[in-house]
Every structure is written in structure tokens, then in C-alpha cells.
Amino acid sequence: MGWVHTTQLRLNILLERLQGLDFTRANQRPAELGLDEREVFIPSPSGGPALRRVLADLGIQPADSVLDIGCAKGSAMRDLLRLSFQRVDGIELSPDLAAIARRNFARLKQARVSIHCVDARHFDGYGRYNVFYLYNPFPPVVLAPVLQALTSQHDRRTELLVIYNNPLGHAQMLAQGFTAMRRYPDFWGHGIQVYSNRPQASRLGPPRLAPGEHTSGSHPDNPAA
Asked: Which domains, from first to last, does the chain contain?
């Protein structure tokens, strides 16, 4: 990470402390949070200008609802709330991080937010959302059953958009019937990929990727939030 990024992160942390917020400060390792490191990655903030550029390009409508899968402290959700989503909710496995996220949004007086402290593989509310965000919260072995649960709770005629930051689970996305539609740069350099389960009739139009081209992602030190 360059000194500009480091300086920006430190400035964000300072400003948040002055407001009684905690979105950006470094998180603990999964084991320190009581989580299995084989099933979750270290959470870290992923909100910011890169994500906002992606969101601005997707034509979000007031009827859309979004779920951040592995939301940690809610950094990305804060940017999702800038748009006209009907609902902006999150799933977080760690009770400690879920509590911080709830405090953050209570402090901001955000009424459109709910944080569900639950294993994403067993969440039964995916049908309430049509847009999903992930910052690589878990390895492909966990992503596969999450995607199975997600798709099984929707009518096949409904378009689902998945905004996948650092898409290590690209193969799992394809296996569940999703197509990579667009690719964007991100803060950490891993890339953000947008997928649709209905590429032929997508609101996004035709894919903007060359055939076979995709962002495979990388295994960062801070891959989730």
C-alpha cells in the first residue's frame, strides 16, 4: 500500500473517532473474533471512491434492495446508503463486528439498515434482495453453499446482481449460473467484478469484458468487509 493510501486511511480513522464511529480501524484476525480461519478471511473496510464509482454505473433504482454478505463494521454499507436502495442490510458472522456495525448506523441515525448476525450459509432472507455485495469474506468452499442458498430463494426470472470485490470465487460464480458483466479497479488492486444471473436480459446490457476475461482476484491480507 502506498503512502497516499496509508495517509488517507489514518485520516479516515481520525475523522471517524471524532464522530464516534468505527468503520475503518483495522479489525482483529478471525481467531481473535472466535471464528474459524479456514472459513473466513480477515475483515477490512472496502467502502470508498472505487466502490462508489461501481455503484454509480449500475443504475440502482428505489425498488432495489442490497445485502452486504460479510459486512464486518459496515464500511461498504455506508456507501451503499448513498444510493436510492429500498433496503441496505448486512450479514456478519462475528457478534463483535455486528455490534460495531449496529452502533455505527445507530450513530448515523440510519433507518434503512439491519445487521443480521448469522452464518451466510444458513441465512433464509436472501429472497428479500436483488443486489448483493461481497468483499471476499470467505474462501470458495464457503462461497459455493452461500450461492446455492442465495439462488434457491429466488425465482429464476429475477435478475440478481452480485458486486464481488476481489473475486477469488469466480469459478463458483460461474457454476451457479452467474456471468461476469463488468470489471472495475478497486482500492487494494484486486478488482471489482459485477455478475448477473440473466446476462441475455440484464439491465446492464451486454458484458463489457472480452470473452474469457475476468478478474480472478488475489489472496490479500485484508480481504473482507
From this structure: 3-201 (3.40.50.150)
